[in-house]
Amino acid sequence: MHQLVVPIGYMGSGSSVITDLVSEFRGYEARNDTFEYVFLHCPNGVFDLEDKLLIGNNALRSDEALHSFLNTMRQLYDKKWWWVGDYQQRVGVEFWDCTKTYIKKLVQYTPTYYWYMQENTNIQMFFKLAWKRIVSLLTFHKVNLKKPLLYSPMWISFIQPDEFYEISRVYIQQILKLMGIMEQSIILDQLLLPHNLYRVDHYFGDELRAIVVSRDPRDVFIINKYIWSKQNMPVPYPTDVKKFCGFYKGLRESEKYTQSNKVLRIHFEDLVYDYENSVNQILKFLNLDSSFHTLKKTYFLPERSINNTQLFQNERYKEETKIITDNLSDYLYPFPYARVPVESQTF
Predict the structure, then answer these.
(1) Distance (Å, rounded) from C-alpha 295 to C-alpha 305?
(2) Where are the alpha helices (DSSP H) in the chain?
(3) By the 8 A CB rule, do 271 and 214 touch?
(4) What is the chain's mean pLDDT, rounded?
(5) What pLDDT does residue 230 have?
(6) Which of 82, 100, 103, 329 is 20 to 30 A from 303 in CA distance terms?
């Protein structure tokens, strides 16, 4: 098995630079560019399944967890026009079979009784219940059709942590094989998030190389509010500067820090202002030497990306910049020199 490189960021922190840079290394490919694979950390993904089955579990909780997971994976597989979906094409047609096998291994009991979540009604259920009632009345209660349920049977699991992680590792490895990790090293953007990196040693072996990119929040705020919004791009942060500070601080403080040797942390700005040392740091992390950097500055151009830094030096952002400087001092980057970028060249 070759390496799995996962670029990770804090919403607008520039993590796609890792996809661009590592794609310049011989033997590394981002087959779907910066497409974000979310099946691990999305709501009702693998990590939610872990929490539900291993923390405060009970029969009903496990049934909900397993069915919710399968339904979500089906959507990721089927929904061609959902920007995080279409796994049938982006992963492979075998993704769904692997997922069903994964669930089958996790389910321990399938009782014949049911619970209230299975009785929840929708339009289809309404007509089935009405028909059941009609048949009962017409036969003077001699014929009672089976009670319609949203799904059947229940899936119950009281699986132990070691077994859950082992089954999950096999599942993830199967998916990685579908994406070509046996042939070459692959780059999967945002397969993980900073907030669930503490889990990685349970799920991955030495193949994982997660690279977390942070960025000066002053630039993050300005590029969100004044650059991306004008381009009709999604803006994930509040545009009120005080609310931004609270939001950003909460985002960073909610992260459960990990010391895993599978994780490298780097500043976006280091790749611009200290390019050679930063590239060497990443090469070392991947156990490569400089000879592997065969397409140097083909996809990532620090001379161009410098226009995405120090936006806060513009005089018209002075007041908002001061508020961020005062409230988020722990996250500011120590720039080696000051420069005012040409905003029209910011992207």
Answers:
(1) 17
(2) 16-22, 46-54, 59-78, 87-90, 95-106, 116-119, 123-138, 161-178, 200-203, 217-222, 241-253, 268-273, 275-285, 302-305, 318-327
(3) no
(4) 92
(5) 79
(6) 329
Q: How high is the pLDDT of residue 121?
A: 65
Q: Does the predicted TM-score (pTM) go above 0.85?
A: yes
**Calpha distance 264→287 (Å, rounded):** 13
Residue 126 confidence (pLDDT) above 90: no
For residue 87, what are its two tokens?
Answer: 């796994």
- The share of the chain scoring above pLDDT 90, in percent, equals 80
> pLDDT (tens digit, 9 = 90+) per residue, 22-45?
999 999 999 888 899 999 999 999
Distance CA 187, CA 84 (A): 16
CB atoms inside a 10 Å sphere around CB 43: 9
- Which one has a higher pLDDT value, 235 or 158? 158
Structure tokens at 305: 């990306």
In whole angstroms, give the CA distance from residue 42 to residue 99.
15
| Domains in the chain, CATH or no CATH each | 1-31+188-347 (3.40.50)
Residue 137, pLDDT score: 59
Q: What is the bridge-based pairing of β-strands 185-187 and 263-267?
A: unpaired
Q: Please give the span between the terminal C-alpha atoms of the chain, in angstroms, as a whole number.
A: 36
Instruction: Give the pLDDT band (50/70/90) at residue 218.
Output: very high
Q: Is 153 or 221 the better-scoring residue by pLDDT?
A: 221
Cis peptide before 148 (omega within 30 of 0): no
Q: Is 162 exposed, middle or buried (0-12, 13-18, 19+ CB in 10 A)?
A: exposed
What is the side-by-side strand order in the sheet with 263-267?
A: 28-29, 185-187, 4-9, 208-214, 263-267
Contact 8, 180 (CB under 8 A): no
Q: Mean pLDDT, to the nearest integer, of 324-328?
A: 98
* Residue 309 backbone class (left: φ over 0; alpha: ψ -120 to 50; beta: rest): beta
**What's CA 128's distance to the chain center, in Å?**
39
